Amino acid sequence: MRPTVIFDLDGTLVDSRLDICDALNRLMASRLQPSFTLAEVTSFIGDGVPVLLQRAFSARQLEQDPAALSDFLTEYEAKAAERTRPFPGIIPVLDELRARDWQMMVCTNKPERAARLLLEALGLCPYFSALGGGDSFPIRKPDPRHLLLTLAKTGTSANHAVMVGDHHNDVAAGLAAGCQTIFCRWGYGEPSDAPGVRIAGAPAELPKLLEDALAGMVPVSSK
Ligand SMILES: O=C(O)COP(=O)(O)O
Ligand SMILES: [Mg+2]
Hints:
Layout: E1 4-7, E2 14-15, H1 17-30, H2 38-44, H3 49-59, H4 68-78, E3 85-86, H5 90-99, E4 103-107, H6 112-121, E5 130-132, H7 144-152, E6 161-165, H8 168-177, E7 180-184, E8 198-200, H9 206-215
Helix pairs in contact: 1-4, 7-8
């Protein structure tokens, strides 16, 4: 079985903060509410759009109206790749992993349609053999089944997979799923000190860390 890496999307592969911030502020403006700063919006990201909106509305001491989720997604999907770009150094890493025959997947708490639109707009789709979005299944990260169900799309088992993400939800899901797990320091999350987690300071460190993680797995031939 090919070694597999499951990437988180926001804060790991792409810096998406500006477009999320802009979409949220357009939604807030439509509700006659003042804008949030980029730092505030960044602190709302990580648990999917429904939770982002809960955090935003409760920060304004407002009840969330029933149209908020679909209005946000309309705003976001229209301009998801306006200012969002892969983090510097990510594309060379994806090219190197592809050349080394790693299978690559994305497991994100961003809703699947928005994630797919973004990956398409940035030309990233061809790298990935599966995508599990925040609304693809009844559960999402930190629930490990989000990773397991994404892996299952290609019949891959967790003991051939490494989870790479920037948020404690990624680390929790990776460890609970039985995957080798790498935390990325360039993203939006708080640093992880969970035992057994490898830490990447920059994308260029990923190929070596992934090879180390692979060496830490039970040999593929004996599984
Ligand atoms: O949509 C979010 O809140 C976070 O998305 P991510 O899982 O790709 O980081
Ligand atoms: Mg993330």
